[in-house]
Amino acid sequence: MTEVAGVLALVRLSSNIEEWSCTVGPPVDNTEIKIINLQKYQDIFIGDIVCRSPSIADYYLDEKGV
Fold first, then answer.
1. Apex CA 43: angle with CA 13 and CA 16, to 5°?
2. Phi/psi at 45 (nearest 5 deg)?
3. Contacts of 10 by beta carbon, 8 Å cutoff, 6+ apart
4. Dihedrals phi, psi of 56, to nearest 5 degrees
């Protein structure tokens, strides 16, 4: 269940969770952003995590100083 926990944590970075959707797996279309090997930044993230919202990914990476 580690992957699920990682996805939920990423989703929670949005103030309005209902507007965002994150999944574990390959990108479905060009509007998604693929973040690889997030376990380097936080242990709960394992494998590839895909976010449909670029702003969530940008926020997470900015907050981590990546």
1. 10
2. -90, 115
3. 22, 45, 49, 51, 56, 60
4. -65, -50
Residue range of the domain that includes 10: 2-63
Beta bridge partner(s), residue 57: none
Longest dimension (CA), the chain: 27
Number of domains within the chain: 1
- Note the pTM of the prediction, 2 decimals: 0.16
pLDDT digits (tens, 9 = 90+) for 7-49: 434 444 444 434 444 444 444 444 344 444 443 434 334 344 4
Euclidean distance between CA atoms 31 and 27, whole angstroms: 8
Closest CA to 41 of 60, 22, 23: 60
